[in-house]
Write the structure tokens for this entry.
Amino acid sequence: MTVYNLPDDITFTKTIIEPGQSLYAPNEGSNCKVIIKFSPTDYALNENLYNDLLPLNEEININLGFYSTIISNYVHKCLITMKQNELSQLNFNYSSNLNENQTITIFIHLISFERCPEIYSMSIDNLYNFALKHKENANKFFHEKNYFQAFKLYHRSLCYILNFINEQPTDEHNQILENFNQLILSIYSNISACQLIYGNNLNVIENCSSALEINPKYVKALYRRGYAYANLNDYELALKDLQLANNIQPNDEKIENLLKTTKQRLEEYNKTLGKSLKNFF
């Protein structure tokens, strides 16, 4: 039995039942043919908790690294440690709203796999598609209010985008290039949304500024950067962003409410500052 503690706070144990062959293990993007079986006690779990692993007990194809559920994340991380034709038992602790600290047991048979090119040697089409897949899965976690997982996948999407930037696109990639700016804008904005929730205001400002360098009128980035400036009591910069966002997208309730609140906070700050200055004279 081997215990794996991975950098993204994933901890699991893997017991090899039947060793595999080959010197290599699959990497992110590999197309893996697998059979997934749960232990008898775990079949009672709601299928929505692992719907990207269905159907169980049958041969399925998994695009390694692209998951949309927590349980699937463990399976994907385990597969990265496996060899072709290996059969292993995966164990990890899982908690949900209904079950606290439940131990999940899954049997994974990696029948075969086709390794994917490493990120630095991928085609432009694959870089774009992989970035888009990670963003779509991150959106699912964000809507479920699992902001930590969402942030990780948004950041992974950004890694592919940055490699995309380093490539030299040709005319045949015009369709991808048309969508590229919108994708990178949304990634920067969505990363900042996660950071705003955790109060990482300086990082919010940095990422929104990166988005605004591409499109100075991107309303979501203006709103979130303004929100972060307000959190840091930099009301004048906050108002500058929020007023511009309000001009571009009038009658938006969120923008108008934050704009009103920020103006009130600036007035209160100026009054307090004025009283403090009087004490010096």
User: Anything to note?
Assistant: The radius of gyration is 24 Å. DSSP finds eight helices and six strands in the chain. Helices lie at 70-79, 124-143, 147-166, 174-197, 201-214, 219-231, 235-248, 253-278.
